[in-house]
Design goal:
Elements lengths: L3 H13 L6 H7 L2 H4 L38 E2 L23 E5 L2 H10 L4 E5 L3 E5 L5 E7 L17 E4 L3 H14 L4 E4 L3 E7 L5 E7 L6 E3 L2 E2 L8 H7 L2
Parallel strand pairs: 2-5, 6-9
Antiparallel strand pairs: 1-10, 3-4, 4-5, 7-8, 8-9, 10-11
Helix pairs in contact: 5-6
């Protein structure tokens, strides 16, 4: 397993080869939990994948079959899908600032965001805290409001989830191994353009940790980008981690 300096050099190399090391990437790629050497999971864990090979459907086929047999697909090259804006377009380097969350117990949430996601406390007052990367980029701001009830799983408006982007599939596989060793449950989906793991914090707020597939692997039907919610190839994901 790579250490801090190796991870930072890997991110720098990834950026120089055409990627962009966004704050989200830094947050999830250089993390306390994943910087530590993680041994291979015990044999019994390898039979308890989030999606077992014998049980999952064929990767690339949506469970809702939204594309039918998806005949006549084409590579999704830039400009070949979606509606091209007639006027202003956001610059490609546009990024997001910190997400602000209201939580019921600050100490409980700090433990989760540091232990599970590996974020660092950058600033803390009596009832709020700012967390982010080792480099000091803020990603999450927590504000305690005593008496708040956990967010219901369904049925109300509010935050669906916020997302943390990882540089590549190997990082996501190592994060999956790390969650297994912590005993933290996670959902998993293959969206064709990306692969993702889904978590719930102590207030039931949703967190997506994902990696994009290379754009050269994206497909389209007409001007519609092919996306779905398919079972993830967890065996392949874990193999990519080693």
């Amino acid at each position: 397993m790579r250490k801090d300096g190796d991870l930072q050099r890997a991110l720098a190399r990834w950026e120089s080869e055409g990627g962009r090391a966004t704050p989200e990437i830094e947050a999830a790629g250089i993390r306390r939990g994943l910087n530590e050497s993680l041994p291979s999971p015990p044999r019994h864990l390898r039979t308890k994948k989030m999606t077992r090979k014998a049980d999952r459907e064929t990767p690339g086929v949506s469970t809702r079959d939204i594309f039918g047999e998806a005949t006549g697909t084409s590579p999704a090259t830039p400009g070949s899908y979606g509606q091209t804006p007639a006027g202003f377009r956001l610059p490609s380097a546009t990024g997001l600032g910190p997400v602000r969350l209201q939580i019921a117990d600050l100490s409980r949430s700090l433990d989760y965001y540091q232990r599970v996601l590996g974020l660092q406390v950058l600033q803390q007052t009596g009832s709020s805290a700012r967390l982010g990367t080792l480099q000091g980029t803020g990603l999450v701001e927590l504000t305690e409001r005593r008496g708040l009830r956990p967010l219901p799983g369904q049925g109300r408006t509010g935050l669906f989830h916020f997302a943390i982007l990882l540089p590549d599939r190997a990082f996501l596989g190592r994060f999956a191994l790390y969650l297994e060793q912590l005993g933290v449950a996670a959902g998993a989906s293959d969206h064709l353009v990306s692969e993702a793991l889904y978590l719930r914090d102590p207030d039931n707020l949703g967190i997506e940790v994902y990696t994009d597939r290379p754009r050269t692997a994206w497909r389209r039907t007409g001007r519609e980008l092919m996306m779905a919610t398919d079972p993830i190839d967890m065996d392949g994901l874990l193999e990519a981690a080693v």
